[in-house]
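Reopening closed ticket. The problem is back. First fold of the pair:
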Amino acid sequence: MSLALYRKYRPATFAELKGQEHVAEPLQQALRNGRINHAYLFSGPRGCGKTSSARILARSLNCEEGPTPDPCGKCDSCVALGPSGSGHIDVIEIDAASHGGVDDARDLRERAFFAPVAARFKVYIIDEAHMVTREGFNALLKLVEEPPPHLKFVFATTEPEKVIGTIRSRTHHYPFRLIPPGVLQDLVEEILKSEDVPYETSALPLAVRAGAGSARDTLSILDQLLAGSDEKGITYARAVSLLGYTDSALLDEVVAAFASRNGAAVFAAIDRVIESGQDPRRFTADLLERLRDLVILSNVPEAGASGLLNFPPDELEQMRRQASSMGPGELTRAADLLHTGLTEMRGATSPRLLLELICARILLPAAYEDEASMFARLDRLERQAGQGGFGGGQAGFGGGQGGDPLAQAFAAPAPGQGGPGQGGAGQGAPAQGSSGQAGAAPGTSGQGGATQGTSGQPTQEASEQPGAPASRDGGSQTPGTQSPPSRGADPTSSVNPTPRTAPAESGSVDNRAAAPATAPQPTAARPTAAPANARPAPSASPAPSSAPPAPAASGGGGGGADFSTIQRLWPDVVEAVKQKSRATWMVIMSGVQPISLDGKVLTLGFDAEGRRLGFVNGGRDAVLREVFKERMGVDWRIETVVGGASGGSPPGGRPGPSAGFGGAATPNPAPQPRPPFQPSAQSSAQPSAPRADRSPEPPPPPPDEPPPPPEPSPVDESEEVDPEGDADADGTEAEMGGMALIQRELGGQIIREIDNSAL
């Protein structure tokens, strides 16, 4: 009959103690110095060498050559206390689990005063010391505090906190630790070589893992594998089936299915696990450990060489590929879900159901809005972008795959790069993205007669002569300039005698400024002669250098984006801001329009100073910049002005003082029919014509009594924002409208409010 391996290979000296050098070396030094205490407390997990160290200490104390840190192993005391010895009469081992009462303590106290029979010291080894009752410890307290010279105590326990403080304070406490897996595997290989048993290297980590850091448990499992081995020795397949672990090939299959989002393969693997009779909890634990290894490998590529992971080189290489196919975000999220599910499986009546639900959650990160799911999706997008999986799409969440009009418009070429601007009235083609198109007069982008060269610059009409009325609004414009038409003149009547019934749906800001001028009106007959007081129109020539260029319609700040694109997509930008910050959306939802784009500087026009201050002082520009970064991949600086600029429409879509129509804006509740076309000097194409020739009309005098304030328009409840519930709303005065701020701070009275609904 063979002896158990954990007894046969029990350490006989401190040098043979594996994985506990932090305890063995101080004890050896104490024996060399002769500073031996009367009581010791050894604590730590089971099977880590506490009782064996107590026997080694007793052997060192009673050796004929001792006390010595290295027992001779030849004297009667060393042989009796050896691994295969029968024990010594003066070394008494007591199991406190069955001898922990007060009566047992009193009996020990009475026999402890007798001198040793054949040894130098009488040593009491009390195992499972935490099982001694409080009364038993109190009975031993005086003896442990002041023992006779020949008496030594060694308390061994897995729970040192249960030993009463009065006993613990009178001992030297040495905490033992779990043995590292590498040390245990070396010990197992050493024992197998000494036993002359063949083995597969891949089977040893399974035995070490089952031992969980305990040398005694590991050797017990190794003994079991040896007992069931044949002439082939210990094989991986036999170890997997005997210990109940999941085959690594099945784990590799499940991880690959997670990486490729192959739900059929995942659920087929679960079915194989259940059909083979394996415990779903064990499979979940094995899968969790595999994901843990992949997380470590993704963060520490050299984990195999540094000892963090103990796998063969070929398996490590395969695990590296698995880690790169999922990424740290997805791996961490999957590990968290498995850990939570493993806890929920305790006591569950249907662990298979829970396992399938866990795998379904791992496969569908897009169905959850938590931080881990968002990071997992972002991690996958970054890997696909790095591998060229987007098919040339631009950066951003849209990825050029549809769903985000901002990302699509920015990823596509500029509207003006596909060909010359064409289209009649009502055509929804956007204006060309060149700098010359932005300087065209109102209504030009909706007409088919505006000719453009391939360079984007307007060309000179050959039929235009001095003294004749202007036949085209944009024919004599220089890039970046605009000629203001005279009052009552229809800018479209010179191109087509048929009146336009609807403005062209162009993305240009000039078309929006000209929208009120293109309302239904009587057909204007083309005049045959100019009036007597009309000055001859100068020939079309480049604008003088003194004329300031219009700030609008400059080139875009990034590839494929220009000012006309920004104008066309401004409602989408506002909607994107609404999803990010409702407080910012409330500021820019109305009365704000883009004015110009100069390089990387986007200028916005506000209809009121209070609204502009609320945008700037409240940090709303940062929110808008973030939207441009996320949706369009551009980093633009936001500038703000009050009112519009030449070449651009005023904020809110109503004509203002700088809208390019000449005089100051006057209240006009309804559009009036325009008189027949009267050529004048202002209709000339000369951009530098002085505006002093046309004096602005004085505004109408205010009424004697202020009219009642207009009825507020109904507010959609879905758009209402509770400032208290909005984290971005700060309630500062800068966010108030201009009228409300003037009325409250300056005591002003609203006389009249212009109705812009008909403009």
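Second fold of the pair, where the issue appears:
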Amino acid sequence: MNMMRDTWREEDGSSEMKVPVNISNYLMAIASSPFILSRELQGRTRKSLQFLQEADAQLQEILRERNMTLSQLIDALSLSCKEIIIQCMYGSHVLNSSVCCSFTKKVKTVLGLCYVTYATDEVRQVSTGDYMGFTYYLNDVSDHEPEIMSSIIEKSLMVNTGLQVTLISDVTLPSYLVGRQGAIINPGTLTTMELDLTMMDQYGLKTLVDREEVACIPSSKLHNLEWRSLIHTSVNCELANYRDCIQVLCPNCSLYAHQDFDDTDKPICSVQETARCFSELFNLIKVKEEVLNNTESCWALSKSRCVRVCEELIFLHTNTVNQISASIMQPLTEELNVPNTTKVSVVAIFYPKLQYRFIRFYRKTLMLALGNFGSFMGVMIGSSLITVLEVFIFFCLALCAVWDKLRPRLDH
């Protein structure tokens, strides 16, 4: 994952530019959400509106000077993959920074620009052990953390800062997910992430009699599709709902976290525009009935478009963090060829047992239902025949007993 700094250098190393602290903080709110702004700025006061307008004007001036779009500026201020990863290991294969980063893909999220690495058959874990899965050796990037101004950003919401690692399935879009889960990696530590995988098989949920039920999509057909083709699936349905309704409420702009799968080249929404969209989407303020109807209708329509994935993967992980001792850190930095003052951090991601939990969901088919119904009726009919026979025998015996008592009287 990544963080946003307040300086960047051109790719050719020719020049470096520093962004004012207030603008870097303003960019955090644009990339994430207006909810991280200080309570004073979240209030719709004259002072807060004036600050947002001035910050936006200053930002537009920087974009004109550098001939960049807002999305390009945020990406430029983000750390590159090579600045983060020193070395990686896939099982017994040790790879340098360039090769490790060649496996990654840039993604735009609510945390800024992040990097995703997908596990493939070539790099799968084949045996148990702490270092038999994915292992990353990460640089100490704490010096790149931007200054946080309490007058702009609510510091109580910035407690967890630094590099973050989040585990997702290969068909999950991380745009919002990274803001809810993940492990913060502190410099000079070993973080082991023990995986627990649950696979939900949902092939059997559609039966022959379910005419309105949409057939699920096998995950094998989703692996190599573009991200915009993945958004309307059950694993990304919440993201699809947000994105579709934001498009309705804010038709003239797009959120930074939606840039990867928006079909148009719309500009990124300003903080004020995003705040208005979120307020209407989550009904945080009193809005017109027409807006509420539009929100409810787009939410229902977007949800109805989500197609179930046949095999859904749910990852849970248990993190253990240990400080790397000085006696280990010194030879480690020498081996990795980094300055001995660098606090290298190590992340080991693995399955402690090569096992996973399998859950199968299914509905009864017509044949199974008829079979069960037939068996039930067979038992009931058989029981009924036995009961009728017992009643018939009872009446016959009763008549015989009565006849035996009446016959002596009739003879006299």
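Update: turned out to be a display glitch only; the data is intact. Residues 7-361 form a domain with the Acid-sensing ion channels like fold fold (CATH 2.60.470.10). The radius of gyration is 32 Å. Please close again.
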